[in-house]
Amino acid sequence: MTKAAISVAVELERLAALGLWTVPGLGPESLKALRACAGGSLAPFLAAPVADYAQVLAPSVRARLQRVETVEPLAELTLRRCERAGIQIAWAGDRSYPAELAECPDAPPLLFHLGEGASPRRRLAMVGSRHPDAGFLVRARAFAREVAEAGALIVSGAADGVDRACHFGALDAGRETWAFVGSALDELDAAQAKMLPAVLRAGGAYFSELPPGVRASKESFPRRNRLISGCAHAVLVLRAGARSGALYTAAAALRQGRPLYALPGDADNEAAAGCNALLAQGAALACTSSGAACRSAGLRPAERSAPPPGSRVAVEALSSEARAVHAHLVPGEAVGFEALLSEIGGRSGTLTGALCELELAGRVVQWPGKRYERVD
What we know:
With 376 residues, this protein is an alpha/beta fold. It contains 15 helices and twelve strands. The strands form two sheets. The protein has a nine-stranded mixed beta sheet, with helices on both faces. A three-stranded antiparallel beta sheet has the order 10-12-11. It is globular, with a radius of gyration of 22 Å. Residues 1-6 and 303-310 have low confidence and may be disordered.
């Protein structure tokens, strides 16, 4: 087969995979079943009538798939939407697709991404609760910064709470960070969208397995957690209650054979109950310092250095919305999100974005219960 013929065959294979991947509920197992039916290739399904092969799929997927005659228009539509949003596609085997993730049995055939997806650095997944105990977010951010300074690429989920604090810690160190989100990349929430430019400037990336137009759901978050652990060399749960979503990432790490670590908490601290349970069950090893976290990812810990120049952004350089919120807050007094929204007025999305900008700038700290305190 000539190089040109090989190139065409690969293109058809990828277009078929892309069209099929846009069908809700059609995942890696369904793709394996279809490949088995066609001798190991998906290319024949690109233009084939859906009715010819839908019977090998689950009834719920079959019902969705049969709304179209072929999957070729779905692939073309997805490509157009990616182009409009500036979203890139990384295929398993590409440089921008994490090789460690590609080795997992339930890895997606492709990832949508914004920013640079390739990095030779050791990766540590750092995850935790959206609502940790008072004061922990400051600790998590400092912890993540020290790990990033040692050379680890921090991977997390860009969610409120510990995840976002870890991303901020990497940015404080002037290092790139990867965020795996539970929605399509053109459906980010206000805080994720506000953090995105800083992540891209630092050379990091946002990833999603979901095609454009798909919003986050209760089902999408647990599934994306396997991507966070799958692309990492080790996983650290910093804070997790007994029902924390971070425990889904821990479970995925165990299935994937990733080294799992947890930061222990006081026995009577409900916010640390999930971490303590992982340790008591022997599922995770204890990690009590940033140095230990570095070693878990195969790195030597670095001495803590001074904050990089400009890590705290001048108030004058912030957006008008962020400056208004900063002026309204009082140092030493934490204010709840709803109370702040009532006092300032405007839309909740605008306030969320302004608060995220202030967090990135090192001007605001978020406490549990979505309470915000000005830092001067």
